[in-house]
Design goal:
Its EC number is 3.2.2.-. Helices cover 16% and strands 29% of the residues. It has helices at 16-23, 111-118, 127-130, 133-140, 144-147, and strands spanning 5-6, 27-32, 35-47, 75-80, 84-90, 99-109, 159-163, 171-174, 188-191.
């Protein structure tokens, strides 16, 4: 296995659908009180700018969504249904909206802490930890107050995406789920056959 390296900003300086596919198999790393909570990205969704009715950027730039109009490689965290946080990473050149939603991880390190943050038993089934965007954020302790606008390309950041040479294998594209607008577009990408992807 190659030594892991933090993905550079240029990685995100592309169209969300391309970034989304290339994020599969990479590692999301969260530093929490000296511990590394790590999961392999196995499911993502791409969201575009003004022309994507399902995107938060569809109606223009606001205080809430300004991160996805900014430079690429920054965390965009939002709160949904009054109970869940969701983690996205900005794409495209500055001024052009776009992001990738991280939908599911395969837990790799820090599983007992993830279980505790999820309110589960220490040795809960790994699939219960990070399969779904809300679970993912809860298991890694990701919140809007702490992580929104965090630079994931900074080696000193508390939240990073790393490359460790993992071969992603076969990638499947499906319509995005959990949305009403532009739901038919095949912009959800997942590692085919991976048991940690979310339902739907």
């Amino acid at each position: 296995m190659k030594q892991a390296r933090t993905l550079p900003r240029t990685f995100y300086l592309r169209s969300p659908d391309i970034v989304a596919r290339d994020l599969l198999g990479k590692l999301l790393v969260r530093r929490l009180d000296g511990e590394l909570l790590t999961g392999r990205i196995v499911e993502v969704e791409a969201y575009f700018g003004l022309g994507d009715p399902a995107a938060h950027s569809a109606s223009g730039k606001t205080a809430r969504n300004e991160v996805i109009f900014g430079p690429p490689g920054f965390a965009y965290v939002y709160f949904i249904y009054g109970m869940h946080y969701c983690l996205n990473i900005s794409c495209e050149p500055e001024g052009q909206a776009g992001c990738v939603l991280l939908r599911a991880l395969e837990p790799v390190g820090g599983l007992e802490t993830m279980a505790r943050l999820r309110g589960l038993a220490p040795h809960a089934k790994p699939r219960l930890l990070t399969s779904g965007p809300g679970r993912l954020c809860q298991a890694l302790g990701i919140t809007r107050a702490i992580h929104n606008a965090l630079d994931v390309t900074d080696a000193e950041s508390g939240l990073q995406v790393e490359e460790d040479g993992f071969f992603a294998g076969s990638i499947m594209a499906t319509p995005r789920i959990g949305i009403r607008k532009a739901a038919e577009r095949p912009l959800r990408f997942l590692l085919e056959g991976n048991r940690f992807v979310s339902g739907g």
